[in-house]
Amino acid sequence: MFAQQTAMGKGQRAVQAFRSTEFIEKPRDQEGLVLGGNPFKDAPSTSASLLSKKSTVLSEKSASPAVVPTVSKEVIEAGLKDEPSELESVPTFILVTTYLSFLMLILFAHARDFVGKLVNPEQYVQLREQNGYAPMVSDFESLWTRRLYGRIRDCFNRPITGVAGGRVNLLERVSHDFNTTFEFTGRIRNVLNLASYNYLGFAQSHGPCADKVEEAMREHGITQASSRVEAGRSKLLVETEDMVARFMGTESALIVSMGYATNALNIPSLVSKGCLIISDELNHSSLVSGARLSGAAIRVFRHNNARDLEKQLRHSISQGQPRTHRPWKKIIVVVEGLYSMEGEFCKLPEIIELRRKYGFYLFVDEAHSVGALGKRGRGICDHFNVDPREVDILMGTFTKSFGAAGGYIAGSKALIDYLRLHSHSAVYAEAMSVPVLAQVSSSMRMIMGEDREHALEGQQRLDQLALNSRYFARRLAEMGFMTMGDPGSPVIPLLLFSPAKIPAFSRECLKRNIAVVVVSYPATPIITGRVRFCISASHTREDLDHALEQISDIGDLLMLKFHKDKVQPQHLKAE
What we know:
Helix content: 25-40%
Shape: globular
Strand order of the largest sheet: 4-12-11-10-7-5-6
Distance between the termini: 49 Å
Largest sheet: 7 strands, mixed
Mean pLDDT: 84
Number of helices: 19
Strand content: 5-15%
Radius of gyration: 25 Å
Low-confidence stretches: 1-26, 30-84, 567-575
């Protein structure tokens, strides 16, 4: 246990402030893209020295005078102001009809089950006891899947072929038995892709990254077919991990071949029984799985609410562990940089202030923010100009912004060395394959400006994504749609509310050759069913204008323009 605590010790932070590749303001064209010149400086090749180790007992708050706060007072004060919820302006009629719609669906579902068991009992045989064996699920537990989700299955899991870039080839399918089964028609439809996480447009089957992948496979083969502790550690893997560490501004990094496992298998290595995890209520399921597997106590605070987080911290520290009231061995706060279902940024400056005050460990999941936020694409720390040394554990994935797969954990060298020996993702899981490593390395070099042949392309992708995201969100708001999220988020949720409008919106978009993702309960609260637009740097202005025109028509058809009379929505005034 002492080794585990020492590996996460706060005394392992670097003395010298992180100085990575810095964005230089350049003249821009009418689209906002950088004109000429290299927008980067060279990144440092060595990490800073380490401080002496300190005890990691969380009741003893460590504060090093060498650490200079990088969060401005203005940012903190702005974050402490409570912003009114977007849902507060929802007409009461919409909320009431949404609840009534779900109530009617559930009542009809129960009625159909009651009549069906009398008329066609053979269709419900799997829900009854058979040969002394209880059914796998009860009729009540499977009611939602059978009677509600089954009605809109055609809106989900649509098969594609090829690369999910700005446009995607969709395999057309039909159902003749109310979505119980599907048949392929043999036709392929090329549709505008607003459904995939391809923020920087690196999901390509051609181009400089694809060429680098091909060269790497010719030189290194396909895979090591082994875990990294046996024969999976390669020169390419080590070089890519060093690059990730430089990119994130940390001393070291660990690459994992699966994004979900990056959270689910590493969190249990960091905390155990006697530790406390305080988690945002809307954290991703991989974070929830890792927390549950760890055996640590779990408490939840209200989404993105720093005041509620502080309340939980004060209570947890003062009361200690249940029954014994002994101090917690470790307290770790787990948040996301960008919440993909809400399009909201983590209030990192406020959490950093709480961390300095209470001395907990901070775990930030940057699966959706790394590469998509910040002038240099470094994620939520770059967005708020926060020193990455202020975050103990930085986690991210390569699936959203880098066009690859897998994930990483970045932090102090002591932490990463500990994980390499104790994490199941490093000891037992297979090492990342050569093509994926090459894709990660080539795309990251391009973002950092280290690819001399394409020195400006990475920064142009970052700029284009920011422009596209703000433009699309602003136009939706101007049309009168009710959207969620923060300005600049590449994920833009548009509220649909009614359960009937959720599949209708998806089907109408598909008729107009636009692919979107609709989300409903239980993935969201019951009254906030939504469509989630994923913006990419690969989208042209013509693509976005065409999509907005079609979405506006659908909004008129389904009566979704709840804010039609508002010229400038409040959540976009900051722009």
